[in-house]
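Replying to the earlier thread about multi-chain prediction with a worked example.

Input:
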Amino acid sequence: MTTEPRIPDDTQQRSNEPAPERWVRTPPIDIFETEQGLVLRADLPGVPADGLELQVQDNRLTLLGRVASPVPDNAELIHAEYHSGDFFRSFILSDDVDHERISAKLTNGVLEVLLPRIPRSLPRRISIQTQ
Amino acid sequence: MPVFRWGNPLEALPDLEREMDRWLKSVEVAFEGLRLGRPFPALNVFVVEDAYLITAELPGCEVSNLDIEVADGALTLRGNRSPQKDVPADRFRRSERMSGDWERSVTLPERIDEQGIQAELTNGLLRVRFPKLPATAPRQIKLNESPSSPV
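Result:
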């Protein structure tokens, strides 16, 4: 019998870490299943590799992406359709995610996190000794 | 307790119809999310001393699937986002990221140097720079005296 891996619970907590004057956004994500486990993709436009902090603590996966401003400081905003700002989101991982093997890559502003399942242990035969 | 139902044997049809409607609506939302609602991509426009800057967030966009065009005083951005094409739909647990074709046109300010426009795409963030044309000295326009005005 197979048990469904739990969907990582998304708590969407706001981080206390970034300075309060910075705008913090919740990035949109996709989560899908593969043979090996779960894959999470998040849109983090403008986040360079060194601006990304990905942390697993206990059962919580936290992502924080810091956006480097694409314009010089003296640029004056004359028309705004979106808020630029850092990205933050956290997830509760299910127990069958192998925390040690979590890996991630960031390509063109899209983060991909691989959450492999803990390999199911094979049935083990227990030998019975007769006395 | 009725063992079988009298009436229209096709009465299950409206149910089916409703089900189809619901399904189609969800498809529509998924597909048209980009077109309806807010224009995509959202743009911010900045001005610096010698140029205008436009920024847009295009996560997952590569230079090869982005078109930028300037014609008749308008800037057109065009692209395609299909970040999930490699994943069968039934594998998704959650799907919030948008996908599909998109196109957006904006009118440019008049006094810019169209030859000097530069665009760069870094980490899914597009930045287009439009240099302002240098200010020209005011030019006096000579009035011609008309020989006689028609009566």
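Confidence is low (pLDDT under 50) at residues 28-36 of chain B.

Feel free to reuse this layout for your own posts.
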